Each structure stands twice: as structure tokens, then as C-alpha cells.
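Kindly go through the entry underneath: sequence plus C-alpha cells. Please state briefly how this chain folds according to its C-alpha cells.
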Amino acid sequence: MKKLFIISQKQERQTDAITTGILLANQLDLLPEIATYSYESFSGDAYYNPRIAASVRAQVLADDTAYVQQKLSEINASHVPFNSMWCKNLSEHACEHVQASEYAMIVKSIHESERFLPVDWQLIRHTKVPLMLLSNNPLNRAKSILMAVDLGSNNTAKQALNQAVIKQASQLATATGYELHLAFVIRLPKILRDMDLVNSRTLIKEAYQKHQQTIEQLGLDSSHVHIMAGDADMCLFELSCRLKAQYLVMGARQRQGILGHVVGNTSEAILTRIRSNVLVVPQDSAD
């Protein structure tokens, strides 16, 4: 049986990843495992005196360990294994530790940060297994799951990623009993929409006709298929809010190098405003 890796960070404004992660593990028939990452930047006496720094570090680790133990006790899950560690680079350690041969998913709360290259950005870029990021600002959710696929792509890698997204979303729907919805966004720049150079309604109607066979093979009710035209991140955000979706499942192509820093992924752009939990399926999982 594979494991579900739960990242615990003790911050008041973050969703309880431990409780949600253990529930997901039970639903998906996975073994939960918790990692508590602790780190503080020292200044003053603690910075210049190694003995003081060691004492402070030990206290921080003890406090974070006590927090996890208390949380597990509250939900009657004291049997769940966890590991506390002092680690400056959470994303680097997690991505190196969590290999697809042993783990099926990572679960953590969305890390709200104004810094360049925040933790979640790095996790999305380098994870080898699906990554569940829990919203800190959820809607009054309905029992629905929204999966975003690119029906219009002929690219082999994108098609493989589509199948990986569909597989993960279907497994989640089966495990939770939630309704599954499909979203396909025809990318249409705002300037073209504003200038009325393209009829978006016509594009959408043609897309339904073109992909009818593919949609039928998925076995979804027609009312659960949503084709839109516009900016992908905004369309998915608005649709997920309208459906009050508990989960949004989408792929990440994990572009690397300079191009990756400039272009980015829709999954990264949507995290700044999303109010659903986001399951990011990496390209590696489609191989």
C-alpha cells in the first residue's frame, strides 16, 4: 500500500492539513505519514552564540512536535507516524524524499507569501507525485470535483497529462462519492474578446461538437461538461466558485529553466485566488 505524505506547518491562518490529510488517506486507501518542518531565522544573541541557537532550535522543535501530538490525539489518530525536522528548504527535502515508487500524494496547506519563489511554487515545479494544496479560504462547498483538461491539444505530452488528470480526478470522485465535472478552457486573449474579433460563442459551440465523442467516452452527464473561452486561470476560478467545488484537479507541465520562470503554469497563477482545494498532477506522473 502506498503512502500519503502530509506536510504540517503550525500557522494559525492555514487549513488543518493533518486532519484533512488523514481523512484523504482513509478515503483513498493510503497510509498517512506526517512530516513537521520547523525553521526560524535567528538574530541577536541567538545568531552569534551557537549554544543559545541550539537551545532555541530544540524548543521550536519540541513545540512543533507537541502540536502534532495534540492534533493526532484530538482526532484519535495517535498511531499515525510523524517525523519532526529542522529544515530550511521544505520543498527541496519533500520533493527528494517523496518518490512515486513509495508515495501516491503530498498534502499541505497553501502557503500564502508575497516572496518570489514561494514554497508551493517550488513544490509544483519539482514534485514527482500529485500535490494536494488545501485552500485557506474555502467556500461553503458542495460535493463536487472539477477537473481541468485541454481537449484541444494534439501534443502527445499534453494528451498524456490529460489522461493523468482524468485518472486522478476519477479516483478522487470514486473515493469521496462526489460529482465529477470537466472544464475545458479555449484560450482567448482579452484583447480579441474586447475587440469582438472572435465570436467566443461560436468557438464554444464548435468545441462541443468537435470533442463530443471524447466527452461521451468519459461517461459524464452533459450538464457536468463546461467549455469556456478566455483566460484559463480566471475561467477555472469562476467556474470552481460557481460549482462550489471542493477539489480542482489540474495538470502542471513543470517547465524548467529560464522559460519556466517567465511563463509559469496555470496551476501556479490560480493559487493566488482559488477557494477550492487544488490537486496538481505533475507531468512526471503521466510518463
Remarks:
- Confidence is low (pLDDT under 50) at residues 257-263.
